[in-house]
Amino acid sequence: MALMATRTKVPLLLQHRVVKNGGAFGKVGAMRSSSTAVVESRPVGLGVLGLKDYEDYRRSLYGEITHKALLVDAAGTLLVPSQPMAQIYRTIGEKYGVKYSEDEILNRYRRAYGQPWGRSRLRYVNDARPFWQYIVSCSTGCSDSQYFEELYNYYSTNKAWHLCDPDAENVFKALRKAGVKLGVVSNFDTRLRPLMRSLNCDHWFDAVAVSAEVEAEKPNPTIFLKACDLLGVKPEDAVHVGDDRRNDIWGARDAGCDAWLWGSEVHSFKEVAQRIGVQV
Fold it and tell me: Which domain of life is it from (predicted)?
């Protein structure tokens, strides 16, 4: 997710994930299916019982704190691009001869991101430069290596990203104080850890599972299981929060975790904490 940045959901250009309208090398958005009823993405029976009944059911099994660990998606949930991807591609690209409009860049980005990546089963291998070079070139029609490096480096900095929820730090502190372990699960390349350090949020988490390191990308259950292993919890004791129904919700549930859709089922980390049973 580092050269991402738009949010419509096709991964950000050098970001990792289908963006909903912004991302690091362009998280644009070609993945998230609109609004298939939220009930369809919840655990069996939740649509019938209702959310409160499900939460009461969890508390009857686990006590007031319903989950021992919280897993959080990075781009699109914890972090969001500061500027629309197509705007950045266009602005930086002007001096390299990029002529496409922002709408054209966005549409071309979506088409490129939606194509199978033939060089590897993984898009984000190590720093993911080959993949992002392909995306940038297809999106803008420019293959200038200096242009690519400028974009790639931009999405590696805290100038390109900001925290989605300004109250996140206080909420995470309260969760950890209550004994809830915290982890990040992200389809991202190796820039994620230094990016989190630059945003001063890396120390909030007990573990980080990055697809480029785990060699598995959401919705593959492997990456969620790795995060649970790093935290020392069973999948059924963890809940994952992310903004992509397929990658985050279905993937986490396939791994045996609970999962809540960011922007639909939960809208802030305070709400997440309250659902877990921790008051902030």
Answer: Eukaryota
